[in-house]
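quick one before i forget lol
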Amino acid sequence: MTQPLIGVTTYLDPAAWGVWRMPAALLPAVYPALIQRAGGLAVMLPPDAPAAAEAVVARLDGLVIAGGADVEPVRYGADADPRTGPPARERDAWELALIHAALSSGTPLLGVCRGMQLLNVALGGTLIQHLDDHTGGEGVYTAHPVKPVPGTRYASLVGETAEVPSYHHQAVDRLAAPLTASAYAEDGTVEAVELAGAWVLGVQWHPEMGDDLRVMRALVEASQRGTHPKR
């Protein structure tokens, strides 16, 4: 059986390696490693012109919107909180276009942390711009329990409360009308969202930083079924 091709978005940041110092399309290696462990083939998707998103998604079997920079608040009609990070406008525009292309084509989609937040924004929701105590300190992941909502897709994948690795300071505020919250943290933070009638799931945590393959394996399996047309 052919392995599905899973695209995963990247950062666009200054980087250094060897004697070189220049802008680079970056992706922590744990992302493609998780896709590979779950049975997929990983391909990196650096920011591009939003108009190219439809053609790119048409060549993919599944899509992962990776974690990263804060979504620019203007995208959901808000002024920036002083604690909100600098905008990544090129990445926002590219990933929003990818999300809409995936939704239009029925391509299975997983949003991770920022990816979940951007999915909510893409469909009309808003974000809490700062939360305390959702990291283990600067550059340190924390772990906390996430409880699934019975009857949801996420609950069908992970039926029990599970400890998950997380690192974020933003979260869903007003949930977009088309989305359903499918998991919560103990403090009430929305930890997973999904879209009825399609394989679309967002998780607030970072599955790539743990050993639980269930969410990524489900994306790969949905992509394997090939439920949307390809060229």
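fyi The first strand starts at residue 5 and ends at 9.
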